[in-house]
Design a protein that fits this description.
By secondary structure, this protein is of the alpha+beta class. Helices cover 40% and strands 19% of the residues. The strands form four sheets. Strands 1, 2, 3, 4, 5 and 6 form a six-stranded antiparallel sheet that branches. It has a three-stranded antiparallel sheet with strand order 7-9-10, with helices on one face. Strands 8-11 form a two-stranded antiparallel sheet. A hairpin with a 5-residue loop joins strand 12 and strand 13. The longest helix is centred in the C-terminal third of the chain and has 18 residues.
Length: 291
C-alpha cells in the first residue's frame, strides 16, 4: 500500500505510523512522509462509488470554505479526490495536530460555535446520509415485541416534518469525539463521511439528549445542565433562532434518540428507552438551556 500511495499521491518515503479505530469495516491509518503527516481512509468493498464521491466532495467543499472547519483533502497527482485499490475506495486528508475536545464547558462552548459555522452553509448541493423519511420508516418497523411499542410509535407521529423546516449543511454526529482543537487554538470537525445538506434541528438537537443525558454510577439518569448550556450558548453566540425554532431542537433531539435506540444492541434497548422517557418527562428543564 505504501508504494501505491507514493505513486498516486506523489508522496515520498511513506510509512504507516498507526491505525485508528473506525466504525464499520473501514481502515484508517496515520501516514508519515517527507511531505508531512496525513490520514488515509479506505472503505469496505461494498461502498459504492457514489458514496465515495459524496464523502470526498464534502471535504473538498469545506476545504474551499472561508472558515477552516475540517481537514483538507489531499488530491492525487492527476487531481483526483479518491482512488480505488484492491477493491477498496480510499482518500487522503491532512493530519490535524491537536487534541480531541473534552466534555467540559469550555470545549462544549467551542463546539457549539463550530456547529453554527456549518449551519450557516446553505448552498451545498448533496444531501446528508441521514435520510429523515427512511429513518422514520425504519423506526416504525422496530420493537414489536416490546411493551412500549405503541407509545414509541405515538412519539414518532408527534414529530414535525423536518424537511419543511430549516435546512443547512449538517455533520450528523456532533460531539467532542468528532472535533479537535489544533495546537494553534482552532477547532475543526473530523469524520464528516455522512455530512451534507439536511435538517438543522436534527443536527443541533443531537447532543441535547444523546450526549447530555447519561446514567450516573448509581444507575440514575442525570442531565448535564452546565455542559448543555455552554454548548448552546456557544451556538447561539453566532446563530439566530426564533423561540419556536429553538423548540424544534428538542424535537430533533427526540428524533435522534428514537433513531439510535437499537444501535447498542438488544441488551441496551430498555436503557435507551428510559433515557427517552426521562427526556420527555423533563422537557421544560432540558429546553431551559436553549433560552
Amino acid at each position: 500500500m505504501n508504494c501505491f500511495i507514493e505513486e498516486l499521491w506523489g508522496l515520498k518515503n511513506v510509512t504507516a505510523i498507526r491505525d485508528i479505530k473506525a466504525k464499520g469495516n473501514r481502515i484508517v491509518k496515520i501516514i508519515n512522509s517527507e511531505e508531512g503527516r496525513f490520514v488515509l481512509k479506505a472503505f469496505d468493498p461494498s461502498l459504492s462509488e457514489q458514496q465515495i464521491k459524496h464523502y470526498t466532495s464534502v471535504l473538498s467543499y469545506l476545504g474551499a470554505n472561508e472558515h477552516r472547519v475540517s481537514p483538507n483533502i489531499l488530491k492525487t497527482i492527476d487531481g483526483k479526490l479518491y482512488k480505488r485499490h484492491n477493491s477498496r475506495y480510499m482518500y487522503m486528508m491532512e493530519y490535524v495536530y491537536g487534541d480531541h475536545l473534552q466534555e467540559n464547558s469550555e470545549d462544549e462552548y467551542a463546539l457549539g460555535q463550530l456547529s453554527s459555522l456549518l449551519h450557516k452553509i446553505h448552498d451545498f448541493p448533496i444531501k446528508s446520509g441521514l435520510n429523515v423519511e427512511e429513518r422514520i420508516e425504519n423506526m416504525y418497523r422496530r420493537f414489536h415485541n416490546y411493551p412500549f411499542k405503541k407509545e414509541y410509535d405515538q412519539i414518532i407521529k408527534s414529530l414535525p416534518n423536518f424537511n419543511s423546516l430549516r435546512q443547512s449543511f449538517i455533520h450528523s454526529d456532533i460531539g467532542p469525539h468528532n472535533a479537535i482543537r489544533t495546537y494553534e487554538g482552532n477547532v475543526v470537525f473530523i469524520d464528516l463521511d455522512d455530512a451534507g445538506n439536511g435538517s438543522t434541528f436534527i443536527d443541533i438537537g443531537y447532543p441535547l439528549i444523546t450526549q447530555f443525558i447519561r446514567y450516573k454510577d448509581s444507575g440514575e439518569l442525570a442531565f448535564n445542565v452546565e455542559n448543555a448550556r455552554a454548548f448552546y450558548k456557544g451556538y447561539f453566540s453566532r446563530m439566530e433562532m426564533s423561540i419556536k425554532e429553538k423548540e424544534y431542537i428538542f424535537d430533533g433531539a427526540v428524533f435522534m434518540q428514537l433513531m439510535y435506540m437499537p444501535s447498542y444492541g438488544e441488551n441496551a434497548v430498555e436503557a435507551m428507552w428510559k433515557i427517552l422517557k426521562y427526556s420527555l418527562d423533563n422537557q421544560d428543564k432540558i429546553l431551559s438551556v436553549l433560552f
